[in-house]
Design a protein that fits this description.
The chain has 16 helices and ten strands. The protein is about 55% helix and about 20% strand. The longest helix has about 40 residues. It has two domains: about 200 residues, no CATH class; about 190 residues, no CATH class. With about 425 residues, it is an alpha+beta fold.
Amino acid sequence: MSYELFISFRHLRSRRSQKFISLITWISIGGVAVGVMALIVVIAVMSGFGKNLRDKILGTNSHIVVTRAMGGGLNKYEWIVKQAQATEHVQAAAPFIMGQAMLMRKGQAAGVVVRGLDIERAEKVSDIAKNLTEGKLRDLQAPSVSPENSDAPARDGIILGRELSRKLGAYTGETVSMVSPVSRVTPLGMIPKMKMFQVVGIFESGMFEYDSNLAFVSLSAAQKFFSLKNKATGIEIRVDDIFKAGQAAEALQEKLGFPYRARDWMHMNKNLFSALKLEKITMFIILMFIILVAAFNIISTLFMVVLEKTRDIAVLKSMGASRQSIMKIFCYQGLFIGVMGTLLGCALGFAIVPNINELVGMVESIFGINVFPSDVYYLNRLPSEIQWKDSFLIVAFSIIICFVASLYPSWRASRLDPVDGLRYE
């Protein structure tokens, strides 16, 4: 151990004449610890929210979607499916139809987005089957008889979102009317196209927009209703690694060329994930000010130590200690405070994150409040995920800030004239 480090530890020890300075030192360590703990917990929660949102989006949508750049249907969609399946990282591909319509039942109406699925291949490209709370995806394929009237003709099946089902009052086994916004020409004039569907299932994705505005039918039923004979709106594609979806989309785009357009899930939800990333960076910067406040405490602590140790500094310089050695003594003190506070904050943060839902439940029981209502946030627990890369950056920034805060007081101590320090001794 160098003598500079030894003297630094001696200065940090509590003595009767230095109890106030020692208290300030512990306050500085506590300030750094609180800042680091807050950063780790907040960043972990925001990372958990981002992952939760990503899982919900990919639970209903595929990783890559291929459509026509100029709009319209795809005539040779099976050829595109084969090209996609031959692309690196692609696991499965399936055609789909997307269109807008109105659903009606007993005076209730709602505008919805209708998706026609290829039943045989839909489960391979998305997790929609896992989101079904009632019914099965294959129930869309075979028309069934309505239980309300056994003599009624067989109808195609439809799966509704949970919120959409509640809004229409249409539950499993009941029938709904689907009305197309595009009218058809008949001898009697322009008449809206209408078809009856039987509700065969309910899904719940956890996202209000999907659960209240989305309905699924079979691909053949959608082709008939939207007059897209032997056509599809686009191709859904699933890859083996969601973070390589962009790479696979670029490779597929080179194969297909114009007028086809391949977009990955990050590109399609760019605004949403960019907003989450911006919020995460903003929170990082804001909470970093807690550590900056602690850094000012370190500066004040070291200045008081310098004033207290003026005689000791003068003696050391008289004995031949260099300015660099004096700077090292006080820099080590600031670094020690930063490292101790950072380690304590990390320990607290890593202990809180896995048990954050228990702490939230404790706060709710003590104050009688509901912090995260499930009907508003669609969460039954607070998502959190420790990001080791973010945690490393927090630790690094914390220690660097504390070290930088110790430089000026250390420099001032090194500039002290031994004559001034010993003049009144």
